[in-house]
Amino acid sequence: MEFRFTDEQRQIVEMVAEFVDDEVVPIADEIDHEDEFPRELVDELAELGLMGMPFPEEYGGAGLDYHAYPAALEEISRGSGGLGTIVAAHISLAGNMLYEFGDESQKEEFLTPVAEGTDIGAFALSEAGAGSDVPAMDTVAEREGDGYRINGGKLWISNGSVADTVTLFAKTDRDAGSKGISSFIVRPEADDGFIVEGTEDKLGDKGCPTAELRFDDLWIPEDRRLGEEGEGFVQALKTLNGGRITIAARSIGIAQAALDEATTYSQDREQFDQPISDFQAIQHKLADMDTKTRAARLLMHDAADKKIRGENFIKEAAQAKLYASEISREVANEGIQIHGGYGYTKDFPAERFYRDAKLNEIYEGTSEVLRNTIAAKLLD
Ligand SMILES: Cc1cc2nc3c(=O)[nH]c(=O)nc-3n(C[C@H](O)[C@H](O)[C@H](O)COP(=O)(O)OP(=O)(O)OC[C@H]3O[C@@H](n4cnc5c(N)ncnc54)[C@H](O)[C@@H]3O)c2cc1C
What we know:
Layout: H1 7-24, H2 28-34, H3 39-47, H4 68-79, H5 81-101, H6 104-116, E1 121-124, E2 140-144, E3 147-158, E4 165-171, E5 181-186, E6 194-199, E7 210-221, E8 225-226, H7 232-268, E9 270-271, E10 274-275, H8 280-308, H9 314-339, H10 350-358, H11 367-378
Helix pairs in contact: 1-4, 4-5, 4-7, 5-6, 5-7, 7-8, 7-9, 7-10, 8-9, 9-10, 9-11
Bound molecules: flavin-adenine dinucleotide (FAD).
Domain Acyl-CoA dehydrogenase/oxidase N-terminal: 6-117
Family: Belongs to the acyl-CoA dehydrogenase family.
Cofactor: FAD
């Protein structure tokens, strides 16, 4: 594979990088400290067309391809890991569910405001007893009148407490295992019985609210079902597969931020009457950090390339996400090491990069589950 940005892709990524340097980086510590959903920043992203990057213009999107979109998300995540999750969950999970599986009228009514960024999206799959093991979910949707009555709860839902549109998974047939799961569009404001129980106090990923949701006799009409009954599990897997490319992007953005910060610090910090960047031990760390970050970026664009070509990209997306998330934590760890004692304090962002990086190894497929996926493809 040979990958080079076109002029148009490069211009978009440069525009996003400039926005991130001017508007996100200066308030990233504040977002981390306050842990509030950064509404104004999200509105600014929407004005720039960045809340609907990959969706066609007819649905309010920017029509970017899967090289430009992850590259832009990488830049956003370089500025703030929390903002990276907000955008990735909104676009790659909620938005893509509506785009891939919604009918024409569902796309017009629900995807367009999500792509324009006037509505915020969330993807509600995981439950207290069903994380990696999705079919273990307990949430049920029972037919009632010309719709469904939904009862149950979800855990760890990114954007869950601020979302206007939630793509929700529930069992329509409790005895059919993975084939008994269906997906629905829920509108928290309008639909009685949608309850936000609270948000998690997390290690990192601050600014993106991770919510616990409860559905108490929530009724929705039949035309809010996405696709047919029983298709929800396959829809979720397909959506998460594409989503993994963007979690690779979030990982790479955080790794790049950790590398940039450590490079600058190593040239400023003097010990033994010389910048610590003169020491070969520090140079080798920087060299490894850069090499791993570049390799992860190439894996991400390789998976994106296969997706754009319409080829099967399950293994490549899993590999890109697995590698990028693990090196992102390693690079952020070395970033702290290069900062010495200062790296362990909140005087520098090195520790934030480490906290933000760790999450990549957990959501949208843990590293262990991704290794299962890759091995299964190898042994197929
Ligand atoms: C900050 C945050 C945001 C999130 N956002 C969302 C969201 O927007 N929407 C959503 O639906 N979910 C979301 N999640 C949930 C996330 O996807 C799950 O946490 C993840 O899938 C793992 O599930 P679990 O936490 O139940 O861990 P478990 O599945 O209980 O796993 C625990 C450990 O066992 C290992 N394990 C489990 N099964 C296997 C296996 N078969 N083989 C080998 N090892 C295994 C895991 O790798 C892990 O190390 C989010 C989570 C977090 C922390």
